[in-house]
Amino acid sequence: MLNIPENASEEIKRALDFLNKHSYRKGECLERHGGHDSNGYATVPFLNKTIRAHRFVMHALKGMPIDSELHVLHKCDNPGCFEPEHLFSGTNADNIRDSIEKKRRSFRSRVGYRSRVFRCGHPFTEENSYANDKGFKVCRICRLESIRKYNEKRKKK
To answer: Suppose 76 and one of 86, 106, 107, 145 were both cysteines; which one would form an S-S bond, judging by CB atoms 3.0 to 4.6 Å apart?
Structure first.
């Protein structure tokens, strides 16, 4: 459970108390019963808003401003977790690097992103890629295969 600092404001104490009443252990992670956003992050009511619990915990227990431009990253890679020992702050670049190292990042990307392989596993090279009308780099091998299959279906009709 989360320790409530004695010098915390009433709003912070109320939100931490709320999390303590609605949380449980899942392995070493601390998660909340219900109350998750569409991306799987636990949420908490704070100052008449619903905010992500991990961001609130960094604010309440580690002093990070709620509106900080820094990201809150998870050592455990569990978006629903708000265990303080699992959380650390980092820049957007740190967040991207962390997601790539943990193999969570999709390599379907906008033009200019420097990945080595596409999601399909084909190599990401200039010869094997092109930018589609939405600006995403597309695997040429997969696109040509898709066109070939489409044309085969049309011929059969």
So the answer is: 86
